[in-house]
Design brief:
This protein has 106 residues and is mostly helical. A two-stranded antiparallel ribbon has the order 1-2. Helix 1 packs across helix 2. The longest helix has 15 residues. It starts with a helix and ends with a helix.
């Protein structure tokens, strides 16, 4: 199993800019790259959200319509994104934390 420095080298060789995003280290970046593959295969952001299981789906019952997250999708990719979100929420003065605070205030 590769160590963290080897993983960092692999991510840097891929010429990815993921590690410049706050909250994304070499291990999480490698997980995102490995689980996603070529991003060009997703024509839209919505198609990628559907693939990773974070696109809301509509649930209709009687006269009520609501939305929930899909149970389909790549659960390991979804887990990596959740890890990034949790890390960003813990970082003060981060756009992820500001977004979280706005949503809590709503």
């Amino acid at each position: 199993m590769p160590n963290a420095e080897q993983v960092r080298g692999y991510v840097e060789k891929s010429e990815s800019t993921l590690m410049s995003t706050p909250g994304i280290g070499p291990v999480v970046a490698a997980r995102l790259i490995a689980r996603t593959g070529s991003i060009d295969r997703f024509p839209t952001a919505a198609a990628y959200a559907n693939y990773r299981g974070t696109a809301p789906i509509q649930i209709a019952s009687a006269d009520k319509t609501r939305h929930r997250l899909s149970r389909k999708g790549d659960r390991q990719l979804n887990s990596a994104l959740h890890t990034i979100a949790v890390i960003q929420i813990r970082m003060p003065d981060n756009p992820g934390r500001a977004y979280y605070d706005r949503k809590i205030a709503d």
